[in-house]
Amino acid sequence: IVNPPKDLKKPRGKKCFFVKFFGTEDHAWIKVEQLKPYHPHKEEMIKINKGKRFQQAVDAVEEFLRKTKGKDQASSHNSTEEKNRRNSSEERGKQSAGEEKRKASLSEGKVKKGTGEGKKRVSSVSSERGSKSPLKRAQDQSPRKRGRPPKDEKDLTIPESSTVKRVMTGTVAGFKWPPSVSEPAKDSDPHFHHFLLSQTEKPAVCYQAITKKLKVCEEETGSTSIQAADSTAVNGSITPTDKKIGFLGLGLMGSGIVSNLLKMGHTVTVWNRTAEKCDLFIQEGARLGRTPAEVVSTCDITFACVSDPKAAKDLVLGPSGVLQGIRPGKCYVDMSTVDADTVTELAQVIVSRGGRFLEAPVSGNQQLSNDGMLVILAAGDRGLYEDCSSCFQAMGKTSFFLGEVGNAAKMMLIVNMVQGSFMATIAEGLTLAQVTGQSQQTLLDILNQGQLASIFLDQKCQNILQGNFKPDFYLKYIQKDLRLAIALGDSVNHPTPMAAAANEVYKRAKALDQSDNDMSAVYRAYIH
Predict the structure, then answer these.
(1) What pLDDT shows up at residue 21?
(2) Residues near 416 by Cβ (< 8 Å), separated by ≥ 6?
(3) Distance CA 98, CA 117 (A)
(4) Contact 410/299 with Cβ under 8 angstroms?
(5) Residues 6+ apart with CB under 8 A from 330
(6) CA atoms of 523 and 421, how far apart (whole Å)
(7) Which of 145, 286, 359, 476 is the most exposed place for a label (fewest CB within 10 A)?
(8) How far, in Å, CA of 277 to CA of 271, rounded?
(9) What percent of the chain has pLDDT over 70?
(10) How many CB atoms lie within 10 A of CB 433?
(11) For residues 258 and 518, what is the distance between their CA atoms, to the nearest angstrom?
(12) CB atoms within 10 A of CB 472
């Protein structure tokens, strides 16, 4: 447990601590009841978690404890030597004094010793509690009048709690603690708010940017949202389901999702059209499925994430496809971004075989997938949505249940339509700045100080300025989503002129062989 940055406020609600996670070097707010002591649970967790990254985290914890113990021993040794020297000096003074002075000296010595013991006891109690921050200790010693502390200092004070055994500046609390035998098992809180702060070379900038995002959003619409935990933090809020999980499709998004499912302790069987992509996950503990049908037949819940409507249909309806493995009670979750007609057709054929169906497209990119910070939009079987809770928490920061099948597909296309149109506008603005003799970097600096400031804006502009178009979200896929969004508008006779204009720019970028680059490569459509 560590002190948070001064400008970082605690989330509302129950008491929580700012926790450092060994191995990933990330930080997050964690509720008090979700923290457990390290040593009593250490061996049990090592047996359960066989992954290399978990072992690296344990090694980092042990190294930290060794260094802390060494410092404590050195401090204790120095304190003992200082005390011995002081006692020896006092003894020599006593022997050289007269009888009356010796009595006075002895009397005074008792007073001093009594005072010293009193201080020692206070120090001992403070050490045993070990819960006050350095700031809080400083407050106790200051002459400030009694009353409520200033707000900024109050936020930094770590409250005492008997449920947490802690070392200031940090022993680990970030492992996936199961409930102990002596305490009742608790269900994972579906409204748990978890926020990640990834450390950077410029922490002040990172904290300032992230702080604005650390707002607990209360969902007031008719949909249901789950605020899920960040997967890189491997914390006690997620208890992996005991159901067997299957995953089909290990592309940019699927790879990160599977990685986080494995980190959280889920049992996962994987399949990919290009089998070599499965090797890495097999090494991390996943099982290999030979066909989609085999994965579905051997797993309780099977997720799929593929590129477009055609790929989604082929996966279900093709040879050795998903449909051949569906039996009553088998569950299928399609995370692909497709149109509502496609997902409705797939739902019908799955349900006709006795299966359960949920659509759950995700909003995000490769980096957010790797970090377990996707936004999941789900619709269909509500019970299946609840069954997927631990999986959604592992792969995303938030999930929404939007009702009947087709709603999530429509919402996802609208979200990506806005994102794709915005990206095209960014590229247009940067090229206009260039041709009119304005600094593109200055334009970015101005935008970053205004109302449009966002991580998306900054990252995509940096890609363009650096000429780095390594795909984080394929250009060909955002163009596909724009095309489907325009078709959605046509189906209800709703105009989408902005999306239509952006779509034409992306089509030109594709003609310039930018399909497999990042969506920010749409910039090149303006300079050719």
Answers:
(1) 82
(2) 337, 363, 478, 481, 482, 485
(3) 27
(4) no
(5) 296, 297, 300, 302, 354, 355, 356
(6) 12
(7) 145
(8) 9
(9) 66
(10) 16
(11) 22
(12) 19
Nearby residues of 371 by Cβ (< 8 Å), 6 or more positions away? 196, 198, 230, 231, 232, 256
Only one residue has tokens 């079987």, namely: 381
Cβ-contact 381, 404 below 8 angstroms: no
Listed residue (197, 259, 267, 201) closest to 5, CA to CA: 197
* pLDDT (mean) for 174-202: 37
By the 8 A CB rule, do 56 and 187 touch?
Answer: no
> What average pLDDT does range 7-28 have in this prediction?
75
- Containing 391, the helix (H) or strand (E) segment is helix 389-395
Say which residues have a Cβ less than 8 Å from residue 78's Cβ, sequence separation at least 6. Answer: none
Q: Tell me how far apart the alpha carbons of residues 345 and 406 are, in angstroms, rounded to a whole number.
A: 10
pLDDT tens track for 135-176: 333 334 444 444 444 444 444 444 433 333 343 333 333 434
Task: Show Cβ contacts of residue 327 under 8 Å, excluding neighbours closer than 6 positions.
Answer: 297, 353, 354, 355
**pTM, two decimal places:** 0.60
**Percent of the chain that is helix, strand, coil (3-state, to 5):** 55, 10, 35
State pLDDT tens for residues 437-465: 999 999 999 999 999 999 999 999 999 99
CA distance 413 to 220: 22
What is the set of domains in the chain, with CATH numbers? Answer: 16-69 (no CATH), 245-405 (3.40.50.720), 412-525 (1.10.1040.10)
Backbone angles phi, psi at 454, to 5 degrees: -165, 160
Cα–Cα distances in angstroms (integers) from residue 61 to residues 39, 58, 179, 208, in the given order: 11, 5, 21, 28
363 in Cβ contact with 250 (< 8 Å)? no
pLDDT of residue 12: 67
The predicted structure's pLDDT at residue 333: 98
Other beta carbons within 10 angstroms of residue 512's beta carbon come to: 14
180, 188 Cβ separation under 8 angstroms: no
Phi-psi region of 354 (alpha: psi -120 to 50; beta: other; left: phi over 0): left
CB burial string 257-295: b at 16+ within 10 A, e below: bbbbbbbbbbbbbbbbeeeebbeebeebebbebebbbbb
